Every structure is written in C-alpha cells, then in structure tokens.
Amino acid sequence: MTIIIRKLDKTKHEYLAYTKSLCGKATYFILFEDNILGAVTLHNFIEMLKAFFKQNKAEVVIGDKSLKVKNEMVLDLIRKY
User: Fold this and answer.
1) At 74, phi and psi to the nearest 5?
2) Within 10 A of 44 (CB to CB), how many other CB atoms are there?
C-alpha cells in the first residue's frame, strides 16, 4: 500500500494524504496541517488503513508537486468535516 502526501497549492501549512483502495475503486484521504496534531492525525490515518486493509506496512511517499484544487468549494467542504 502506498500513501501519497502532497502540499495543497496556495496554502502554507496544509497537506493531503491519500491512497487508493486495493481494487482501485475508492480513494481514501485526509487533510492535515504541519503541526503536532497533524502528525498524530496522519499517523492514525496510516494505522487505520493498515488495519482495514490487513497490511503489515505502508509506504509513505511525499509528492513533488503541490496539489491544485480546481473547485475551492470542495476544499471548504473538506475543511469543515
């Protein structure tokens, strides 16, 4: 399982971590900030995915490019929840 982390474009401290399901029909993601709470949230997200998909390890990759969100309303919705 590979989890990709990418910085959100036009933000200073926000990142999105995501992975596709093993069958490729779903994407799981989390929005987090680069602080202690964000690190704990990211760790819990990775552990949840490993437990759900019954994987012993996960590869975490940091993407080279920032993630551009085309619709700002979608990003606002993700931030609310």
Assistant:
1) -65, -45
2) 12
Indicate if the pLDDT at residue 22 is higher than 80. no
Strands (E), the chain: 2-7, 14-20, 27-33, 59-62
- Structural domain span for residue 9: 2-80
Radius of gyration of the chain (CA): 13
Strands 14-20, 27-33: parallel, antiparallel or unpaired by DSSP?
antiparallel
Please indicate whether residue 63 or residue 78 has the higher confidence score (pLDDT).
63
Pairing of strands 2-7, 27-33: unpaired
Which has the closest alpha carbon to 45: 35, 31, 66?
Answer: 31
pTM, whole model, 2 decimals? Answer: 0.84
